[in-house]
Specification:
It is built from 12 helices and 13 strands. By secondary structure, the chain is an alpha/beta fold. It folds into 3 domains: about 1-80; about 105-195 and about 295-330, D-Maltodextrin-Binding Protein, domain 2 (3-Layer(aba) Sandwich), CATH 3.40.190.10; about 195-295, D-Maltodextrin-Binding Protein, domain 2. The strands form 3 sheets. A 5-stranded mixed beta sheet has the order 5-1-6-13-7. A 5-stranded mixed beta sheet has the order 10-9-11-8-12, with helices on both faces. Strands 2-3-4 form a 3-stranded antiparallel beta sheet, with helices on one face. Helix 8 links the parallel strand 9 (about 220-225) and strand 10. Helix 2 runs antiparallel to helix 3 and helix 5 (about 135-145) packs across helix 11 (about 305-320). The longest helix has about 30 residues, at about 45-75. The chain is elongated. Mean pLDDT is about 80; it is low at about 1-10, about 40-45, about 75-95 and about 95-105. The structure holds arginine (ARG). Arginine binds next to strand 2. One of its GO terms (molecular function) is ligand-gated monoatomic ion channel activity. One of its GO terms (cellular component) is membrane. InterPro entries: Iontro_rcpt_C, Solute-binding_3/MltF_N.
Length: about 325
C-alpha cells in the first residue's frame, strides 16, 4: 500500500507511466484504424483518408509525450515524494544516524540528544519548576534550530558524559566542558564559546582565605569528579608531594552545601559558576586563578558532519546580535 503510493507519487514513475500509456494508446489507435480498413475493405480513397487520421493521431500522441517531458523538466527535482509523509512511519533517528532535512515540520526533525550535568549555573541548572535551563541549554536549542534538529536533554553526572558520547547514548555534550588535549583524544570539540578561570570558594565570613593552591595544603577541598578543578588539585598533589584532602562529588550543588555546612574548607569551582553560587548561597570567592579555560561543545569523534554543522552555526551565532542577547540573559 505505502510502496504503491510511493511509486505513484514519484515523478520518474509518473513520467515513465505516461510515456508507456501514450505509446500503447498510439499503437492501439494505429492498430484499430488498420483493422478497420481490412475488415470494412474500404476504397483506396478511404484508406488514404484513414491514413491521414492515423498520422494526426500519432502526432497528437507525440505532442502529449513532449508536453509530459516538458512538465517533468520544468518541475525538476522539486516535486519528489513529501519527506514528512514517509518519515512519520519510520522510527525517530538520532543525529548520529541521519542528515537533517533543511525544512520540515518540528515533529519530523531528527533528535539531537544533548548530555549535560545540570549543577553548573548559569550554564545548566534545574529551575524552580524542575526544568533544566541555562546558557548552554539556550545555546544548543538555538544551534539545533539553525541546523534542523530537535533537542532532547539527557541528564547525568559530569564524569559520565564523555563515555556516554563515545557509546553514542548522546550526540552532544553541553556542560561548560573545558577543551583539553587529553579530552580531545576522546571526543571532538567545537570552537570555544566561553573563557573561564578557576576560583577557590569558601564560606562567607570564613577566617580561612586561601590565595593559592599552596594554601590548600592540609585542608579538605571539594571538587566535582572528572572536572578541571579536581584535576588541578590532583596535579598539584602529584607534582609537589604535598597533601590536600580532595573530596570528590558528583554534583556542585552538594559541594556548595557542604561548604556552607562547614564540611569543606574550600571548593574548586569554575569562576563564572562560582560567581553564580555567591548570589545564591552564603559563599564567597577567596581567589581566582587564571587558568585560561575555554568551554566547547563536544561530539563523537566519528561525527564530523555534526561537528561542522555546529561549528558553522556557532560561528554565525557568535557574530550576530542574538549572541549578546543570550549572554546578557544569563550573565547580564
Ligand atoms: N569546566 C569544567 C570542566 O570541564 C567543569 C565543568 C562542569 N560542568 C558541569 N555541567 N557540571 O571540567
Amino acid at each position: 500500500m505505502a510502496a504503491s503510493l510511493k511509486l505513484v507519487t514519484d515523478k520518474r514513475s509518473v513520467f515513465v507511466l505516461s510515456v508507456i500509456f501514450s505509446l500503447s494508446y498510439a499503437i492501439h489507435v494505429t492498430h484499430s484504424l488498420l483493422t478497420e480498413q481490412i475488415v470494412r475493405k474500404q476504397t483506396a480513397e478511404k484508406v488514404y483518408e484513414r491514413m491521414n487520421s492515423t498520422i494526426i493521431a500519432i502526432a497528437l500522441v507525440a505532442v502529449i509525450i513532449i508536453a509530459g517531458a516538458a512538465v517533468y523538466v520544468m518541475y525538476g527535482q522539486g516535486t519528489s515524494t513529501n519527506p514528512t509523509a514517509t518519515n512519520t512511519a519510520t522510527t525517530q533517528k538520532t543525529a548520529s544516524q541521519t542528515n537533517p532535512p533543511a525544512s520540515t515540520t518540528t515533529s519530523s526533525l531528527p533528535i539531537l540528544k544533548v548530555g549535560t550535568s545540570p549543577d553548573f549555573p548559569p550554564f545548566e541548572f534545574i529551575d524552580d519548576k524542575g526544568n533544566i535551563v541555562g546558557f548552554d541549554m539556550d545555546l544548543v536549542n538555538i544551534l539545533a534550530n539553525m541546523t534542523g534538529y530537535k533537542v532532547q536533554i539527557v541528564s547525568m553526572s559530569f564524569d559520565s558524559l564523555i563515555l556516554a558520547l563515545q557509546n553514542k547514548q548522546i550526540d552532544v555534550i553541553a556542560a561548560g566542558m573545558t577543551i583539553r588535549p587529553d579530552r580531545e583524544k576522546l571526543v571532538s570539540f567545537t570552537i570555544p564559546y566561553w573563557n573561564a578561570s578557576m576560583s577557590i570558594v569558601v564560606k562567607n565570613g570564613s577566617s580561612f582565605m586561601p590565595k593559592s593552591l599552596d594554601d590548600l595544603v592540609g585542608k579538605t577541598v571539594g571538587a566535582e569528579s572528572g572536572t578541571t578543578g579536581e584535576l588541578m588539585l590532583k596535579e598539584y598533589v602529584n607534582n609537589t608531594g604535598k597533601q590536600i584532602n580532595i573530596k570528590s562529588y558528583e554534583n556542585f550543588i552538594l559541594i556548595v552545601q557542604d561548604l556552607v555546612n562547614g564540611k569543606l574548607d574550600a571548593a574548586m569551582i569554575d569562576t563564572p559558576v562560582a560567581q553564580a553560587f555567591t548570589k545564591q548561597y552564603p559563599v564567597t570567592i577567596s581567589v581566582t586563578i587564571d587558568t585560561g579555560q575555554r568551554f566547547g561543545l563536544a561530539v563523537n569523534k566519528d561525527n564530523t558532519q555534526l561537528l561542522n554543522q555546529l561549528n558553522d552555526a556557532l560561528q554565525e551565532l557568535m557574530n550576530s546580535p542574538q549572541w549578546d542577547q543570550l549572554v546578557s540573559k544569563w550573565f547580564g
